[in-house]
Amino acid sequence: MLETRNKPYTNTLPFIGEHTFYEKSNNILIKSLMRKIITLVVGISAGVNVIESFFGNLESERMFGFEINIWVYRLIWSLIAFIIFYDHFKKVKSEKKD
Question: What global pTM score does this model have?
Answer without folding.
Answer: 0.64
